[in-house]
Amino acid sequence: MATAAPTGQLTGWRRAAFSAAGYTHDCYEKGAGPGVVLVPEVPGITPEVLGLAEHLVDSGFTVVVPSPFGVPGKPETSGYRTSVIARLCVSAEFRAFALNAHRPFTDYLRALARDLNERTPGRGVGVIGMCFTGGFALAAAADEAVLAPVLSQPSVPLPLGAARRRDPGVSTAELDRVAARITSAGLCVLGLRFTEDGFVPPERFATLRARLGDAFEVIELDSAPGNSGGFGKDAHSVLTRELRDEPGHPALLARERVVRFLRERLTPEPDSPQATDHEPQPRS
């Protein structure tokens, strides 16, 4: 029985700076196939985040992991996590507490997704956001390049008060654009959370269900006392810290659904011109 989440290393990942919307961050890239932007959770690109990234590479995707905070490859500790959160809470790039907010980092993320889409095969790209960055994947889907947004435990705005608990984590204009793309482009959105996770209140997903309807697919893992998965009351990171590589493990099944979702949305039809061999082109 696995006692820890899968991990990875930075070995073999290509690092290059990417600038857009007034910001520059290092990005790590690896793999071949349709593009997926994996935005790390707090405190940054930890070995567990790299474990998920490596799994996506092994599943046939070109994966780009931006590093907007933290130290790439550094293991998580409580002190490290607390120091990163303290900086993020006052950052204008992320606007951690703002309601109905357009967050500047989402402009950067959409540009990164467009760049990856231009260099990889597939009908578009996926964006996976987790924890602090979970809702940014939804905001990224306001851009036509993004066809597979995945919101794993979206925690921003930090849920202090009823209004923030209901807030979807994107501006009204961005949510309207995503809803319009559901009709015009058949966009679908995947969301994941633990049932008892106070950082991802059920009211947030209820807001998204009401606005996006059946196009918002939800995976909720039971973390109530006595749950069959053995999750603790503080379970939060569906695709990283809480995942165990054990057949039938609930978080492992959730990760499998994420991979299928990406393939369903991004893989070109066999007779499409995009279905021909297409190696990802390095960013110039």
Automatic annotation (TrEMBL):
Using the record's annotation, list all stretches that form the Dienelactone hydrolase domain.
Answer: 32-237
Is Hydrolase among this UniProt entry's keywords? Answer: yes
Q: Which UniProt keywords apply?
A: Hydrolase
Q: Where do the record's region annotations for Disordered lie?
A: 263-284
For whether the record's keyword set contains Hydrolase, the answer is yes
Q: Which residues cross the membrane?
A: none
The superkingdom listed in its UniProt entry is: Bacteria
**InterPro entries noted in UniProt:** AB_hydrolase_fold, Dienelactn_hydro
Q: Which SUPFAM superfamilies match?
A: alpha/beta-Hydrolases
The molecule here is called: Dienelactone hydrolase
Q: Which organism is it from?
A: Goodfellowiella coeruleoviolacea
